[in-house]
């Protein structure tokens, strides 16, 4: 694995110090004579590392530079990845209106291209922003659109916190608790850290809401019941009409 990619992977796993070390190595190794795209990946990983450290201005600056480089290269896929990071940064800063605006523009761009992994993440990050912002009908539509890809990839569980928040805001309290129970159980199973500040915030919001409307015994029972479900079962109930 290239040092810059290793740095990004370490940061996503909560190993910030290791991520910084890998990124320093990548920047030392980088040669100005290499193809411009190699510089793009270093910039993206630098932005990602700053994001996980909650240093959003630094992350935005690196992402801006990556976007300018991708635009100069005329590489649509690299441009979409950088724009996706811009939308994620808006959400992390709590500027949900901007996150929705950026996400909507990016989804429109994605729909003109082949539906790939980046497009899938774009839809799901957009759904998270819509849910937090209160655009529940559109969030539901977007998550249902993403459902076949999530089922095929086996990645439902990563998004169950967003699905739980959407269910809670739609008044589907029990379904929200079941989805959150499954979400937490899968993170324990895979020993994964939370995926950045936005999704930790979403998970915390769901839990606080559930604690306000359910007794401690009811919540404990539903979380345990959700933990024993399959990912698709937990998601299906939360996204039902």
Q: Which features does this protein show?
A:
single chain, 241 residues, mainly alpha
- Runs in which pLDDT lies below 50 for 5 or more consecutive residues are none
Distance, first to last CA = 44 Å
Can you summarize the main beta sheet? none
Shape: globular
Content-based structural category: mainly alpha
Tally the beta strands: 0
- Cα-atom radius of gyration: 19 Å
- Which range does the strand content fall in? under 5%
SS field, number of helical segments: 13
Question: What's a quick, concise take on this entry?
Answer:
With 241 residues, the chain is mostly helical. It contains 13 helices and no strands.
How does this structure look, described?
The chain has 241 residues and is mainly α. The protein has helices at 3-12, 16-29, 36-52, 56-73, 76-93, 96-110, 117-133, 136-153, 160-169, 173-190, 196-213, 216-227, 231-238. Helix 2 packs antiparallel against helix 3 and helix 9 packs antiparallel against helix 10 (173-190).
Task: Describe the secondary-structure layout.
Elements (H helix, E strand, L loop, with lengths): L2 H10 L3 H14 L6 H17 L3 H18 L2 H18 L2 H15 L6 H17 L2 H18 L6 H10 L3 H18 L5 H18 L2 H12 L3 H8 L3
Helix pairs in contact: 1-2, 1-3, 2-3, 3-4, 3-5, 4-5, 5-6, 5-7, 6-7, 7-8, 7-9, 9-10, 9-11, 9-13, 10-11, 10-12, 10-13
């Amino acid at each position: 694995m290239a040092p810059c990619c290793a740095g990004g992977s370490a940061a996503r796993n909560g190993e910030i110090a290791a991520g910084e070390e890998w990124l320093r190595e990548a920047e030392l190794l980088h040669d100005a004579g290499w193809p411009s795209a190699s510089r793009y990946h270093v910039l993206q990983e630098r932005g990602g590392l700053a994001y996980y450290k909650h240093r959003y201005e630094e992350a935005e600056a690196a992402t801006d530079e990556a976007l300018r480089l991708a635009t100069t290269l005329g590489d649509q896929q690299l441009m979409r990845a950088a724009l996706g990071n811009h939308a994620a940064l808006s959400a992390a800063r709590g500027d949900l209106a901007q996150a929705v605006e950026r996400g909507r523009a990016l989804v429109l761009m994605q729909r003109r291209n082949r539906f790939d992994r980046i497009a899938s993440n774009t839809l799901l990050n957009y759904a998270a922003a819509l849910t937090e912002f209160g655009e529940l009908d559109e969030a539901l539509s977007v998550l249902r659109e993403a459902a076949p890809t999530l089922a095929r990839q086996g990645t439902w569980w990563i998004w169950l916190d967003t699905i739980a928040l959407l269910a809670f805001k739609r008044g589907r309290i029990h379904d929200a608790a079941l989805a959150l129970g499954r979400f937490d159980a899968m993170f324990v199973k895979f020993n994964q850290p939370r995926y950045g500040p936005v999704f930790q915030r979403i998970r915390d919001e769901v839990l606080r809401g559930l604690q306000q409307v359910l007794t401690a015994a009811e919540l404990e029972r539903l979380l345990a019941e959700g933990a024993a479900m399959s990912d698709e079962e937990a998601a299906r109930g939360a996204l039902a009409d």
